[in-house]
Structures are given as structure tokens and as C-alpha cells.
Protein: Phosphoribosylformylglycinamidine synthase subunit PurS
Amino acid sequence: MATVVVDVMPKPEILDPQGKAVLGALPRLGFSGVVDVRQGKRFELTIEGEATAEVLAQVAEMAEKLLSNPVIEDFTVRVEDI
Amino acid sequence: MATVVVDVMPKPEILDPQGKAVLGALPRLGFSGVVDVRQGKRFELTIEGEATAEVLAQVAEMAEKLLSNPVIEDFTVRVEDI
Structure:
């Protein structure tokens, strides 16, 4: 079995209210030095067998159709040893 | 400036309803071969200056106090070239 990670983040030009909320809260908790925060989603998919190129292409299709909204989000797909 | 990524995932023993919902939807979209899905959050923090060990320790503290719920979630902190 393999673990494939899909990271989904808001497109750079899209307003990220969640990220802005975190950015605003950090100074109130005494943290400094953070210039920007962006928040997205992380999916860990456990796959039967090896993560072949074909499997990664299928995961990219899952990301496009189900895990992300291609209008406002970008995604990346990679194999990770968890 | 550096980008530090914080990944927040549900603890393994914690029920992950979002992940289960995605897992259940995949076959309906014609996808097979996925044994499990876990869904979490990804934060990209843009930091002033270099990501020193001290900065990474501060980010871990931010993750513990603000970005995650340590009772039900685990987090990892790493530097990433975005």
C-alpha cells in the first residue's frame, strides 16, 4: 500500500479569509514575524498496491473532480512515506 | 523570507467523518483502489528572514496554540520551497 498526499490551496489571486483570520490572531497571542498565512486542505489517500504514474494520474483526476474546486483552488499530488 | 508549512491531521484513533465522506464518494465517481482517506488542514506561513531553528520552534508553538487542537489533532512543521 502507498500513501498519496493531495494538497489543496486557494489560488494566489483568491482572497483567503481563513488565512487572514489566523494572521490577525497571531499578534494577539504574542507571536511576531509572520508576514502572511494561507490555509488549505490536506488529504492522505491510502492506495492499494504501488503508487504508479497511472495511479497518480487517477488521484489527480480525483483531486480535480472531488477534492478541490478548480475555479478557486490549486492542488498538488505526491507520494509520501507516512 | 521563508515559507514554513504546518500540516494538521486528525489523530489516527480519532474518527475522521470528512475523510470517510470522501472515501464513500469516490466509487460513485468511478474511482477504485482507494483504501482510506484522511482529511486535514495545511497552513503556509510566510516568515520574515530565515527559517532558523528558533523560528521553527515558534511556529510549532503557534501550531499548538492556534492552528490545531492538540486533543484530537497532530501537526508537523517543515520548511518548504514554494
Notes: The first strand of chain A starts at residue 2 and ends at 10. Chain A has one domain: 2-79.
